[in-house]
C-alpha cells in the first residue's frame, strides 16, 4: 500500500506510527449546500479537503475525513435553508460531532490538530466543538493537545485579492458560490462547474439584519450571493497557492516545525 | 456538467428536479475504523458508498454524502475503541446526525429514502436516528416519507455464502476486516489492501459477554476478527453482485418502481 | 430483617457492608412489552431478575432494582412500538438511566458490576450507557470499576438448544414471546401464561431490512415472532439451569471469585 | 390468566381492552434510597405502588410499572446522596423517563393518567416530565390526555395527623424514614422493618439553606430525619386508609367516574 | 469609578482583586412572572437582587447579575404558565444556566458562593444546577468551592410572621403576589405597585394535586394566590430587615467571616 | 403605575393589552464580560438595552428582560474566557435560553419580535436559538411569528464611521471595549467609565486563526482590542442616534408600522 496523506487510506499500524511521530493532523469541516445553478453542492467539502491535502503534504501531516454535513445555511451568507439540496445539522449536533472527533483523536494520541473550516456557518459551532472537545480531553487527563482553528479563505494575500477584485473585495460573507469558490472549483473539479449557467442576479443586497421567515426575494434566486462570472482555474490557482503557502507557514510557526 | 448519481455532484436545480420526480435517495452510513494491518481504515465508507452508487444507478436514484464517523466500535464486533485510528461518535451524537439529515432531506421533499449501513455498530443508533427524524418530520407536517433501513451485508445469497465459506459462515459479527470486507476492498480499492500483511491471529474467540475495561488479549491483536486470507477481488465481485441485485430488488418492491 | 439478595430489601448499613466486601452487583435491564396474547408484558423484567437472583445467590452478590422501561421495540425483534402495551424510552433516555445508575453505584463503592440484559433492543443503548457511566466515573477519579455486560440468553449450552429445537434454532432475534421465553415464564410465573392462547401465526418471515412506517402484516399479528407451542416449565428449567450455571461460571472467572 | 390491576401482568390484548374502556392509569414514581438503619431501601417503591394498587382497584384502573430510580436525594429531605445505597438519576434523566413513559402511554391511547409520586425529591422533575410529555403528545396530535400529579402523603386527614402526632406534625420534609413511612412499611412489608434498630438521633435540625459540600453532621447520621419510634402497622393502616380513600375520591371527581 | 457591590459594575481588574480576597459572591435567581393586577412582573428579580445587595454590603461581597428568566410557573404556587407575561425556561435549560454560571465563576477563582433564589419554582432546578456545576468543577480540578443555596423568604423570624399574619401564616406556596411580596415591592419599588388594583378573589383553595391541562378556575383569576390587601412598605421593611439580618448571619457563620 | 416600555415593569393585564395590540417586542441579548481596565463589565447589557428602550419608545413597543450571561468570549473578538469576570454560557445553553424565551413569548401571543444582540459572540448561538424557537412554535401550531434578528452596531451610517475613524474603521471584531463601546458607555453610564485607565496596548494584531490553548500575549493584556482613547459622550450620542434611527426605520419597514 502506498503512503497517503489521508488518514482513512492508511492501516491502523501506519496511522499509529504517524501519531507517535506527532505529525500535525488536519480536520476539514464542510457541508452539502447549494452553490448556484452552475456548480455542484460539494464545494465546501472539496475545497477545504484540497487545502488540507496540500498543506499536510508540505508538513508531513495527515488529513482525517471531512465532515460532509455542516451547520445550517444562513440567508445572508449561504442563501439559507430554503434552497433545495442544502442539507444541514443543528448547531448542537454539529458541535457534538466536532467534539467527539477531537476527543477520539486526542485519546488516540494526536497532539497537533488543525481544524480547517470550509463553510462559513460552521465557524461558530466549530469553535464550540473545539472548546467542548478540549474540555472533555482535559477531564480525561489529556491536557497537552495543541489546536489551530481557521477558515481557509482568510489565508490570502492582499495583492491576490486586489488582482481578483480590481473594484474592491465584496467581503467574505457574500463570497458564496461566487468568484473565489467558482475559480477554486474550476481548478480542482472543473467537471462540476458549468460556466454557461453562471447567473447574473447578484450581487445580493442584504439589509443588516436577519428576517424570519425569510421573505421572498431576500437574496438572489440563484443562490449566488456575489458574482461568479470571470471565474477561471487560473484564478483558482492564485487562491489555492496563497491558501496553501500561508496556512503551511502558520502551521509550521505554531507547531515549531 | 454530467449527470451524477451523487447528489453532492449536482447543482441545486438538478437536485430539485430529481426530488420532484420522487427518485429514491440512498444515505450511506460508514465510519473510520481499524480494519487490520492489511487494509485501510475507510472500508466502512467505501463499501456502502459503492453499493449505494450501483443500486442508485439501477433505480434512477441519488446517493447523499456518506457519514464518515460512526458509532463507537465494540470489541466483539470491530475490535473496540482501543485501536489506533478508530475514530467514533457517541451514540447520541450519531443518532442526532442521522435525525438531522433525514429531517433536512424530508423538508426538501425527499419521500423515498434508503438508509444503507456499512458499519456494524451503527445499526442501532441509526434505528434511533431514523425514528427521531421521522418523528420530527411528522411534527413538521410531513407524514408520508417512506424509509428502508438496512445493513448491506444482509443481502447475500445462501449459495454465495456457501461458496465463500465451504466450512460454514462464522457469522456477521466476526466478519470484521475479514474475508468479505477484504474481498470487496480488493474489488473496489485494491491499492488500499496489502494481502501480504494479512494476519493469522484469528478467528477471535470471544466470550458471550462484554468486559470493561477491555482485557488484554480480549480479541486478536491484529484487529481482524475472523480470517482474511483467501480474499480475492473475484469473491468481492460475487458479493457486490448479490448486494446490488438483492437491494435493487427490495427497493423496487418497496417503492413500487 | 432477613438477609436478601435484593439490594433494595436491605438497610443502608447492610448494603454498605456488602459493598465494603466488594461483592458482585447485578443490574438487570428489562422493559414492558407485548409478549403475545398468551403471556404477560413483564417477561423482560421477570426473566433477567430471576437469573440475577439465582446467580447472585451463587456468588454472594446483590441485585439492584430492574429497569422496567427499556428501549423501543423494533418490529423485527419485538413486534415494534405499534403494539398495545409496549411502553418504551428513547435510546438517549435509556442510556442516561444506565449511565446514572452506574455512576451512582460507582460513587458508592461498587467495583464489580454485572449488567444483565433481558430485552433484545436494550443491548446497544446499554453498551452506550456503560461507556458513558465509566467515562464519568473515571473523570470523578474512579477508574477501577470492573464491568461485565451480557444478554442472559447467550448463556445456554448447545446441547440444550438441540434438545429444545430438534429442527434447528431459529435464532435469538425471532425468539420473542416464543418457546424460550414462554417456557421460562411457565417455570417462574405460570399464572401469567395461558397456553390456550398461544397463537399459530408464526414464525415471522421478515425481510432483511426495516421499513418505516411499519407496513401492515410486517410481522405476525399476535406479536409472537417464532412459535410458543410446546413450551413447558420443564424446558424453562433446562434453560434457567444453563443460564445460571454459565453466568455464575463467567462471573467467578472474571472477578476471580 | 387472572385479571390484574398491574398492567405488566396483563397480555397486550387485555391491556388494549382496558385502554379502549378509558380506565384511569396510575404511574408510581419511586426511588432506591436509604431509609434508616431499621428499614429497607425500597420504601419509596413499595408505598406508592401499594397506594396505586388499592386506588386502581377502587376505580377499575391499571398500574404501570413503578420507576425504581428517582431524582437525587437532598440532605434536608432525604439525607442526601452521601448515604450508602441511595441510587439516583440526574434531574434531566428522570424527567426524560417520565416524559417518554407518558408519551408512550398517550400514543397507545391512555387518556386518564394519575402520576403518583412516592419520593419527595421526584416532585419537581416529575412536574417537568409531565409537561414535556404532554407537550410532545400535543405535537403528535394527541391533545386530550387528562393528567393528575400528586404526592400520596398529601392525602391524609387532619384528624389522622393529629392522632399520629399529638405534639404536632413536624412536616413533610422531615418525614423521611420516620413515623409515617415506618408505619406504612410495617403494614405492607413488616419483614423489611426491624424496630429494634430504630435510631434516636433525630429529629434533624436543619438550617434554612443547603450547603455544598454537605458538612459533617448536617443531618442525623442514621438517615432518619424525624422520629420512627412508636411506628406500628395499625398507624400504617390509618394512613393507608386515608391515602386510598382520599385519592380515590379525587380521581373519581376529576375523571367523572 | 466608584466601588460597587454589583460585579458587573466593576472593571475586570477590580473584580479580580475581590476574587483574590475571596469575598463571598451572591448569585440571585429570579424570573419574569405575573404578580397580580396590582404589581409589575419583575418582583422575583427585584426582591432577591435587593436582598443580595444588602447582604453583600454587610459582608464585603459581590452580586453577580440576576437570572431574569426562571423555571416555569406552577399553578399551585405561581398561577401557572397560562398567565400573560409569565416567561419561563424549561427545567433543563434553567439548570444548565445555573451550572454554566457556577462553572464560569469557579474557573475564575470564586470559592464562596451564595445562590439566592427569589422564585419558588426555581428551587429544584437550581439545586440540580448547583450539583451539575460543582460536579463539572471537580472534574476540572476545582474541588474547594463552598456553596450555600437558599430561598430568601425562609429567613424570617417567627415573631415577624406572627406580626404580619395575626390569623396564621398561609404558607410559602400561596405567598405569590400576596402580602409579603407586595409589601417588599412597596418598600423597594413603590412606583411598580398600585394598591388600588389589589384583587380580592383569593386566597386560592387548591386541591392537593396538580391537574393538566389546568382547569378553568383552578386558582384565582387575578393570579394573586393569597391576599395582598394590607400590604405596606413598613411591613416590607420588617421583612427585608429579617432577610438581611438572618442571611448575613448565616453567611458569616458558614464562611467563617 | 406609570406605563413603561419595559415589559417586566408592567402588570400582566397591561402586558396582555399590549400583546393584543400586536406591538413589537424587543429582546436584548447581552453578557457579562471584561471590557478593559477602564470600563465596567455590563457594557453588553447596558448598550443593547438602551438601544431597545429608545427604539421601543419610537414604535410603541416593549422590551423584555435582557439576557445577562451570553456565549463564551473568543480571544479574537472579546479577549477570551481567560479574563477575570467574563462569565459565560455554553453555546447550547445560550441557544436553549433564546429558544425558550421565544417559545414562551410566542405562546403568549407575541407575533412581532426583534432580537437585538449586544455581544459579538452571541450572534451565532442566537441565530440557532431563533431557529429552534420558531421550529417549536410551528409544531405548537403557531406559524405566524415574525422575527428580526440584528446586531445593533451594524446600524450606523457610513458618514458617522468616517467621522469617528478618520483613519479608517478597524472593523467590528476589534471594536471590543474600544472607541464605540466606550463612547456609548460615556453617554449612558459615565460613572462606569474611567477614562484615566484607558490602556494603550492596542490595537490587537491577531493572526487569522484561533489557537488553543490561548497563548500568552495572543491579544492585548488589557482586554481592549482596538483603541479607546478619544472616546466621548458626544461620539456616543452620534452612534446612539444612528442605531436608534436606523433600527426604528427597519422595524417600521418590516412590520409595516
TrEMBL record, chains A, B, C, D, E, F:
Domain of life here? Bacteria
What GO molecular function terms would the record report?
creatininase activity; hydrolase activity, acting on carbon-nitrogen (but not peptide) bonds, in linear amides; metal ion binding
Show the InterPro entries listed in the entry.
Creatininase, Creatininase-like_sf, Creatininase/forma_Hydrolase
What taxonomic classification does the UniProt entry list for its organism? Bacteria, Pseudomonadati, Pseudomonadota, Alphaproteobacteria, Hyphomicrobiales
Q: What species does this protein belong to?
A: Terrihabitans soli
Q: So what family is this one in?
A: Belongs to the creatininase superfamily.
Name the cofactor(s): Zn(2+)
Q: What is this protein called?
A: Creatinine amidohydrolase
Keywords per UniProt? Hydrolase, Metal-binding, Zinc
Give GO BP annotations, semicolon-separated. creatine biosynthetic process; creatinine catabolic process; riboflavin biosynthetic process
